[in-house]
Design a protein that fits this description.
The structure holds 3 protein chains of 3 kinds.
Chain A lengths: L1 E10 L4 H5 L6 E11 L5 E5 L6 H8 L7 E6 L2 E2 L5 H8 L2 E4 L13 H11 L5 H14 L6 H4 L8 H13 L5 E5 L7 H18 L2 E6 L2 H7 L2 E6 L2 E7 H6 L4 H9 L38 H5 L5 E2 L5 E2 L6
Parallel strand pairs in A: 3-8, 3-9, 6-7, 7-8
Antiparallel strand pairs in A: 1-2, 1-4, 4-5, 9-10, 10-12, 11-12
Helix pairs in contact in A: 7-8
Chain B lengths: L1 H28 L4 H12 L5 H10 L6 H13 L14 H36 L4 H14 L3 H15 L18 H39 L2 H8 L4 H39 L4 H10 L3 H29 L1 H6 L3
Helix pairs in contact in B: 1-12, 2-3, 5-6, 5-8, 5-10, 5-12, 6-8, 7-8, 7-10, 8-10, 10-11, 10-12, 11-12
Chain C lengths: L1 H11 L3 H18 L1 H4 L31 H37 L1 H16 L2 H12 L5 H9 L2 H15 L2 H9 L3 H9 L4 H24 L10 H10 L2 H4 L6 H30 L2
Helix pairs in contact in C: 1-14, 2-4, 2-14, 4-5, 4-7, 4-8, 4-11, 4-14, 6-7, 7-11, 8-11, 9-10, 11-12, 11-14, 12-14
The chains are: A alpha/beta, B mainly alpha, C mainly alpha.
Chain lengths: ~325, ~325, ~280
């Protein structure tokens, strides 16, 4: 999976008054000139706060949204140039697991129907074979015995069970690439570890590549081998997990790390100054982070720093590292 | 503020225009030539048909011109107040006919609205304040019931009881036939005497719904934060109810009242027919019996206009009474 | 599916009004179905007794202006009211559902245009338009069904559209797209099944209005004289001056039945909304 200069701008509708005043329509640059690569077998983490654009990015990669500009390559193919039918074929290979396990399942469909649907859409296997595959899949995600779950409705399952169903639905088409959009943030802490272990196990079993999206840096550290840090639509830092966490380069990354709770009451957490300052979402002058950056300079306020590659696979977008 | 009104005015104008288009298009989409309907109804009165007559009628009513021409004519006529000639009351103009009857309808509708809304206002407030209480639940049930009552049946029930068995009220009509009035008060009292039962009927049918709407509006307002503040301030229940909640409820209540006014004008057809009361509702029924197309169409146009105008009035009053919009300008 | 029906029933049965409504409707349905057995006389048979005979042991509800048994007419009249009422409501709701789904799902210009049209039809007064319609189509009991098809869809369209709008944003819809499902499938397999509650509630509430409309139009003489309906009975009663004769039995019971049947559906609708709301609120 490779993403090159991908951007998605959302244009706000103008009111009559602004139209008459000939004001430019305001736009939100949800994703702005993002480029990165994901190699086969990796688990890449995408970390950012709400509003950073990570969910939008996930939708773009799967072409559930059309980008404003840029290219997306999957297994070497430019998926933006594909027709609807060709795209449908590709969809079998890349899937997504959502954040809300209840919202992601149609409350009027039984588990069996939910899992049958992907197979039906792509006309795979005969009805009899489908049931076998569904049962096998349920077992793989830990819903054993599968017969127990086939006729149940989503509201009859627990949160963890639902999420397993969501995962199995994504897997049933045998994808090679999966995007996980905050798959555990709505689950209880105990269930969380179970699902995370399941995710890791499935990776080995089915030879998958993951893009793991989360706002929780600690979680990313647990699972991912590489991390991308996103802020207001741009990638501000990239690197191998351990390196990034032990030696963060970008001020934002440092802020994130310092905000992670540590199970030791005597260690006080102090956020750096200006950490929670209010940002105007519509202005894009200079570095996006400068309003909250404790180390901002005049240059930062004037110009936007590009993403520069450093040695060891690290990249950073900050004027501190020229 | 004026800008807001003008914008609304233009919107309503467009709506009215489109309604006219629909009204115009409707009969022409139906199978058959309007002239044939004309023939069949004139044969009732004249008793002879011929091709010449048919051609003459077509000529007379301009049905041989092109559709666009007819449409232009239609629009031009409508806006200058000419709604055609009634076939039943030939050659009386539809417009005159409607204007003659309209005041009677207005009389009973306005009276019944006043009564119904006035009572409904208070009942609604009480029901909302004692939410879940006996009055509230009874109101909700009766509201459902009154929604399912056919108005003409209620009219007939009242008529049977109070005009036939216990002859308090007259059996029908707006005024006593052939009576000579000694003074204007005589006239007014006779008119009111005849209007009483229709007004009562309409009031019964609409009262519960009005009260229910008032109740719901009150509940919405009571749920808002400023009521909580008033309670926290320690104000007495009654004070809160009257000064804060009821005041705010007046606004949506009035606008709702105005809009329902338009509905009632058309709904009155059943009551008027039951009482043989000569308003436009009765006229509509008559025009149906006698297949008087122009009149029916004219009534459709006028009632649409009434409805639009009452909506517009509601907008104006809403704006005038709601300080928020007044101060905010033309947003 | 059976499980969801039984759980809905349990909730519905908590509503006293709903149960009452259901009972009323069932009684009338029974009356309509068993009419040939229940009815003591042929409703069309005239002058089997003198006209305007008051209720007595032979004719429980007396006779009308042409000597027909009123009770038999009432029993047979239930057929028209129920059939026309339900059918008209169903047609209106069906049309409204289609428009609402299309408008809500596809949005954009389509939505704007359809909603404008809906607004226009909501402003045009129903009754005068229905009368004009009846004028052109002629006296026919199916008038109401047609009129409803033509005019009765806006409420359903509005409701379905707003529900569709909120459903459209749900994650399972997005999930369906991610799997590769096309729009048609999404609308019919995902959105529509989740709107059944609203559809049913709409059909029931429109039935109330349809029953009243049918009775009203019949009362004005817009219905087919060959089929006896309750409204028609009242029409004849008025025309023949029954009031002057004091022959209340020719019109009071008929109107009472209209009111009762409509009430039944209104109560049923109330009970149904009770079932719908907790389900929409809670998960």
């Amino acid at each position: 999976m490779e993403v090159v200069h991908l951007s998605k701008y959302f244009i706000m509708r103008r009111g009559l008054l602004q139209y008459l005043r000939r004001e430019e329509p305001k736009c939100i640059r949800a994703v702005d000139d993002v480029s990165f690569k994901i190699d086969k077998g990796e688990i890449v983490g995408l970390v950012g706060e709400s509003g950073s654009g990570k969910t939008t990015l996930a939708r773009l990669i799967l072409r559930l949204l059309e980008p404003t500009s840029g290219k997306i390559f999957f297994e070497g193919q430019d998926i933006l140039s594909l027709s609807n039918d060709e795209m449908k074929e590709i969809r079998k290979k890349m899937q997504i697991v959502f954040q809300d396990p209840y919202g992601a399942l149609n409350p009027r469909m039984t588990i069996q129907k939910i899992l049958e649907e992907p197979l039906e859409v792509h006309s795979l296997y005969s009805p009899k074979e489908r049931i076998d595959i569904i049962k096998k899949m349920l077992k793989s995600v830990g819903l054993n015995p599968p017969e127990l779950f086939l006729d149940k409705y989503p509201h009859e399952l627990s949160g963890g069970q639902r999420q397993r169903v969501v995962i199995s639905r994504a897997l049933i088409l045998n994808p090679s690439f999966m995007v996980m959009d905050e798959p555990v943030s709505l689950l209880d802490a105990t269930v969380r570890t179970q699902i995370l272990d399941l995710i890791l196990r499935l990776k080995e079993e089915f030879n998958l590549t993951y893009l793991f999206i989360t706002h929780d840096l600690a979680l990313a550290r647990y699972i991912c081998n590489r991390i991308l840090v996103m802020y207001r639509g741009r990638i501000v830092e990239m690197g191998e997990t351990e390196q990034l966490i032990s030696e963060p380069l970008h001020p934002y990354t440092k802020m994130l790390i310092s905000a992670v709770p540590v199970p030791n009451p005597s260690i006080k957490i102090s956020l750096p100054p200006r950490a929670s300052e209010f940002v105007d979402v519509f202005t894009y002058q200079g570095c996006r982070f400068c309003a909250r950056c404790p180390e901002a300079t005049q240059l930062c306020q004037r110009e936007e720093p590009p993403l520069i590659s450093l040695e060891g696979g690290r990249s950073v977008a900050c004027w501190k590292y020229k | 503020m004026i800008g807001y009104l003008i914008k609304k005015l233009i919107q309503y104008f467009i709506v009215f225009f489109i309604i006219l288009v629909v009204i115009f298009a409707l009969p022409r989409l139906m199978p058959g030539n309007p002239a044939d309907y004309l023939i069949s109804s004139t044969t009732l009165t004249i008793g002879e048909t011929s091709e010449i007559l048919r051609m003459q009628l077509i000529e007379r009513f301009g049905l041989n011109k092109s559709v666009t021409e007819q449409f232009m004519l239609f629009i031009a006529n409508t806006f200058s107040g000419y709604l055609g000639v009634s076939w039943r009351y030939f050659p009386k103009e539809v417009f005159t006919l409607i204007m003659e009857r309209l005041p009677w309808t207005m009389l009973i509708v306005v009276l019944s609205r006043i009564i119904s809304l006035f009572l409904g206002y208070f009942v609604g407030i009480i029901a909302a304040w004692k939410r879940g209480g006996k009055m509230d639940i009874t109101l909700q049930t009766l509201g459902l019931v009154s929604m399912s009552l056919p108005s003409f049946w209620v009219a007939l029930v009242l008529l049977t009881i109070f005009a036939f068995y216990i002859p308090i009220f007259p059996l029908g009509g707006a005024l006593e036939a052939g009576k000579i009035y000694k003074s204007i008060w005589d006239f007014i009292s006779d008119a009111l005497y005849h209007a009483a039962l229709p007004v009562i009927t309409l009031s019964i049918v609409t009262f519960f719904l009005d009260a229910l709407i008032m109740r719901n509006t009150m509940l919405e307002i009571l749920g808002e934060d400023f009521i909580l503040t008033a309670e926290a301030k320690g104000l007495k229940d009654r004070t809160i109810m009257i000064n804060h909640a009821a005041r705010n409820a007046v606004l949506p209540f009035i606008t709702g009242a105005l809009m329902s006014f338009g509905l009632l004008v058309t709904g009155a057809i059943f009551v008027e027919t039951a009482f043989s009361y000569p308003g436009i509702g009765m006229l509509l029924a008559e025009s149906f019996f006698s297949r008087d197309f122009p009149t029916a169409q004219g009534i459709l146009i006028i009632t649409s206009l009434i409805f639009i105008v009452s909506n517009f009035l509601a907008d104006i009053i809403y704006m005038w009474l709601d300080p928020r919009i007044r101060l905010m300008g033309s947003r | 599916m059976l499980r969801s029906i039984s759980s809905s029933w349990k909730q519905f049965s908590k509503s006293k009004l709903g149960i009452v409504g259901l009972v009323i409707i069932l009684i009338f349905v029974f009356m309509a179905v068993a009419a040939p057995i229940l009815s003591p006389y042929d409703p069309q048979a005239s002058f089997i007794a003198p006209m305007f005979t008051p209720p007595n042991s032979k004719h429980l509800l007396g006779t009308d202006d042409v000597g027909r048994d009123v009770l038999s007419q009432i029993i047979y009249g239930s057929r028209i009211s129920i059939m026309v009422g339900l059918l008209a409501a169903a047609v209106g709701t069906l049309l409204g559902t289609i428009i609402g789904l299309v408008s809500g799902y596809f949005g954009g210009i389509v939505d704007d245009i359809l909603m404008r049209i809906t607004d226009i039809f909501l402003i045009i007064p129903f009754i005068p338009l229905a009368i004009m319609f009846a004028l052109y189509v002629g006296p026919n009991i199916w008038n109401v069904v047609l009129i409803f098809g033509f005019l009765g869809w806006p409420p359903a369209a509005r409701q379905i559209r707003s529900l569709t709008l909120s459903l459209k944003e749900a994650q399972f819809i997005e999930a369906a797209r991610a799997i590769g499902a096309g729009n048609l499938r999404i609308v019919f397999r995902h959105i529509l099944p989740n709107t059944t509650g609203v559809i049913i509630a709409n059909v029931v509430s429109r039935t109330v209005f349809a029953i009243l409309a049918e009775a009203g139009l019949a009362f004005l003489g817009a219905s087919d004289p060959r089929n006896i309906s309750w409204g028609m009975m009242i029409f004849y009663a008025m025309r023949s001056g029954a009031i002057l004769y004091g022959a209340w039995w020719t019109y009071i019971p008929a109107g009472f039945c209209v009111a009762l049947l409509a009430c039944g559906f209104a109560f049923l609708g109330h009970g149904i909304t009770l079932v719908l709301n907790p389900r929409l609120r809670g998960r």
